[in-house]
């Protein structure tokens, strides 16, 4: 779980040689007392400086060789307290990032192996795993492409432990990261797909859908991957019971490119039409719902809610009769209140039911799309509000004038 900071404090004292031996002695803890001297000895010998030889602290190549030997011995988190584990890895990161250039392929390979070792550790200490990886994430420069490698590992651990919610990952945060990271569009798309897949695997399908739209944005709109992702997005937009805003889909070139697909025409029904048109589409596309794994009952419920929302949009500030709702939804009048409660819960309509008058007084409603017709309706409402406000201002103005007239002044009581 990456923190909000981009720096990790390292409180390391001593020479390069002393710090390497500190790392080695930590690693030796997993061995028995008898085995430890034999484990440490090769490192001590490798750090010695023979006559005429540069000290290891002044020889980058020797430093790399020693550090590689240390890295080969890192198996999981080691045997220490959380503070010791964190300190070990922070010191290791500090040496890695000081010796290897941030964008070098060699560093990428080293970190990939190190991440694999950390993530495969049998330790049940999930918080320290997150902290160790987050420290590495924050130690890397903001624009480093290696940040995506580290966070992908964090995601994999969270998915395996069904702990994705604890990361508190937000779409704005992810968008910020990929705008900073020095990655190609293809690499950014791959990272976004991994995020979308992570949410899908943990059952957070609405969030997965949101990230899938970002993924599609990064794909070449005419590629096979974009077409496949666009069709999947159309299917999910229809399938997910809480997705009612379809406008983001139509801002994607890859989605427009599959306008010949049958699901595209079905989505048009959900944007513009009602239950009758949905039934007509189903009749003209036998077997299509099953082919795409779509549940007819879910779709029918969704199209009824959208139809009711469209009716409410036409009656904002007015009463919408139960009979008109029942007719539009093709249900009995006795079922109307249940559907109104559902549409209010879905956040599509705001209003108040009246059983006595058999009306829904609509205070607010969400339009399925916002095009020429919706702009015209909005203009009419604004004009009506403007006229109403003008009338209120006239009443206030008249009241002020009357307040200043002598005949309007109340006599004061005598002293």
TrEMBL record:
Localization per Swiss-Prot or TrEMBL: Cytoplasm
Q: What is this protein called?
A: Eukaryotic translation initiation factor 3 subunit M
What InterPro entries does the record tag this protein with? COPS7/eIF3m, eIF3m, eIF3m_C_helix, PCI_dom
User: What GO terms in the biological process aspect are recorded for it?
Assistant: formation of cytoplasmic translation initiation complex
**In which organism is this protein found?**
Coprinopsis cinerea (strain Okayama-7 / 130 / ATCC MYA-4618 / FGSC 9003) (Inky cap fungus)
PCI domain ranges (all copies): 194-367
Purpose: Component of the eukaryotic translation initiation factor 3 (eIF-3) complex, which is involved in protein synthesis of a specialized repertoire of mRNAs and, together with other initiation factors, stimulates binding of mRNA and methionyl-tRNAi to the 40S ribosome. The eIF-3 complex specifically targets and initiates translation of a subset of mRNAs involved in cell proliferation.
Transmembrane spans: none
Listed under subunit, the entry gives:
Component of the eukaryotic translation initiation factor 3 (eIF-3) complex.
């Amino acid at each position: 779980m990456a923190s909000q900071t981009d720096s990790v404090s390292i409180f390391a004292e001593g020479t390069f040689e002393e710090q390497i031996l500190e790392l080695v002695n930590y690693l030796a803890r997993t061995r028995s007392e008898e085995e430890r001297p034999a484990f440490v000895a090769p490192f001590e010998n490798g750090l010695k400086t023979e006559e005429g030889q540069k000290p290891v602290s002044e020889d980058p190549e020797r430093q790399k060789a020693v550090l590689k030997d240390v890295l080969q011995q890192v198996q999981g988190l080691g045997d220490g307290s959380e503070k010791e584990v964190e300190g070990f890895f922070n010191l290791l990161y500090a040496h890695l990032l000081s010796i290897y250039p941030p964008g070098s392929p060699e560093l990428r390979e080293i970190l990939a192996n190190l991440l694999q070792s950390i993530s495969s550790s049998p330790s049940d200490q999930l918080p320290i795993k997150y902290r160790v990886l987050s420290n590495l994430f924050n130690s890397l420069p903001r624009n480093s492409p290696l940040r995506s490698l580290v966070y992908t590992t964090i995601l994999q651990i969270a998915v395996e432990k069904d702990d994705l919610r604890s990361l508190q990952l937000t779409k704005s945060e992810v968008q910020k990261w990929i705008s900073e990271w020095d990655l190609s569009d293809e690499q950014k798309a791959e990272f976004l797909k991994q995020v979308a897949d992570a949410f899908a695997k943990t059952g957070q399908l609405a969030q997965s859908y949101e990230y899938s739209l970002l993924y599609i944005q990064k794909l070449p709109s005419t590629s096979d991957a974009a077409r496949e992702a666009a069709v999947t997005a159309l299917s999910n937009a229809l399938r997910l019971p809480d997705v009612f805003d379809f406008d983001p889909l139509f801002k994607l070139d890859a989605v427009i490119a599959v306008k010949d697909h049958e699901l595209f025409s079905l989505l048009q029904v959900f944007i513009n039409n009602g239950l009758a048109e949905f039934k007509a589409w189903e009749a003209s596309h036998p077997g299509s719902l099953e082919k795409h794994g779509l549940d007819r009952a879910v779709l029918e419920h969704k199209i009824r809610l959208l139809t009711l929302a469209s009716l409410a949009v036409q009656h904002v500030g007015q009463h919408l009769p139960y009979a008109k709702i029942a007719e539009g939804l093709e249900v009995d009048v006795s079922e109307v209140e249940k559907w109104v409660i559902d549409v209010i819960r879905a956040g599509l309509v705001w209003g108040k039911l009246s059983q006595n008058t058999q009306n829904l007084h609509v205070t607010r409603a969400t339009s399925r799309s916002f095009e020429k017709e919706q702009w015209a309706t909005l203009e009419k409402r604004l004009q009506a509000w403007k006229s109403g406000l003008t009338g209120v201002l006239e009443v206030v103005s008249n009241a002020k004038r009357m307040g200043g007239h002598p005949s309007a002044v109340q006599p004061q009581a005598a002293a």
